Amino acid sequence: MSDSSTLRSSPTRTHRSSRLSTIGSEANDKKRSIRGRRSSMSVKEVIDGVEITKDVIIGDDISKVNEKNSSLLSIKMAAIEEEEKHLMNYIKKLQNEKEEWDKMLQNYEKSVISQNQKLKAEIVTAELNYENKDELLAQKAECDAVLFQIENWAAKHGFSERLTVI
Fold it and tell me: Which of 59, 66, 67 is nearest to 30 (CA)?
């Protein structure tokens, strides 16, 4: 019988002791929270099969975090506004540079068009000169041929010997 009494008393003791330890830990948590030591607790969460542990803020500390976040928010907003001003100035600078480049390109384009027209005029002049040279060379060739015929006729009739003496 002593075995059965031990078996009966054993589950009761275990149940009572686990219940007491839970109550004890809750009391300790409350004490820590009151003293300010316990400001957050870890919570496990499963997302897409992955267990993630997060720290959750408890009690009055939430207002402290909110105050801190609000001051951080104003600092962040000021930084964002400053960055916005910087970016706007940079955009203006880039737009001015773009306008300068556009003007330079327009001037370059005008210069290139002008040079192109001059080169076309020079090409036309060169082509005319080339045609004139061909005509002049053809006339010279005709003159040379006539002179050659005259020299041959003069040599044939003996005039070349008389001309050399004179």
Answer: 59
Integer CA distances (angstroms), 75 to 66, 69, 81, 130, in order: 14, 10, 10, 80
Residue with tokens 């803020």: 57
pTM here?
A: 0.35
Query: Do 57 and 40 form a contact (C-beta atoms < 8 A)?
Result: yes
Give the H or E element holding residue 127: helix 61-156
Instruction: Note whether 40 and 58 are within 8 A (CB).
Output: yes
Q: What is the pLDDT along the chain (166 residues), one digit of tens a residue?
A: 444 444 444 444 444 444 445 555 555 555 555 555 556 667 777 778 888 777 766 655 555 656 666 677 888 888 999 999 999 999 999 999 999 999 999 999 999 999 989 999 998 888 887 778 888 888 899 999 998 998 888 888 777 666 666 5
